[in-house]
Amino acid sequence: MEQSTIFQICGLVASVCMILGYLPQAIETIRTRNTDGIALPTFLMTGVGSIAFMIQGLLNEPNIIWSLVLTNFVTTICSCIVFGIKIYNDYIKDKT
Predict the structure, then answer these.
(1) Integer Cα distance of 15 and 9 in angstroms
(2) Burial label, 47 (beta-carbon count in 10 A; 0-12, 13-18, 19+)
(3) How confident is the model over 62-80, as pLDDT tens digits?
């Protein structure tokens, strides 16, 4: 098997695992709005890391790594949503 094929397969497997591992937490948080068990620094760092990986994938021209970009786009969006809900629950909701 060619090295580039192995590279692509590993990227796709990693993408599927990352999204399937991350999406259930985001969906549960969006559905219930419960963020009691979520550490704010964790979702902040995950979001920043996802943005950095997305940029890295885009900057790898001319061979943009689409699995890296798409996976981290999804995790960035999820992180931002969960982060926003967490900020609202911890800092804004109590003041209203």
Answers:
(1) 10
(2) buried
(3) 777 888 889 999 999 999 9
Q: How far apart are CA 4 and CA 53, in angstroms?
A: 19
Location of structure tokens 């990693």:
14
CB atoms within 10 A of CB 88: 14
pTM summary value: 0.82
3-95: CATH topology = Monooxygenase (1.20.1280)
DSSP element (H, E) containing 73: helix 66-87
- One-letter identity of residue 84: G
Residue type at 35?
T
Query: For the chain, what are the domain ranges?
Result: 3-95
Per-state percent for the chain, helix, strand, coil, to nearest 5: 85, 0, 15
Task: Quickly count: other Cβ atoms within 10 Å of residue 24's Cβ.
Answer: 10
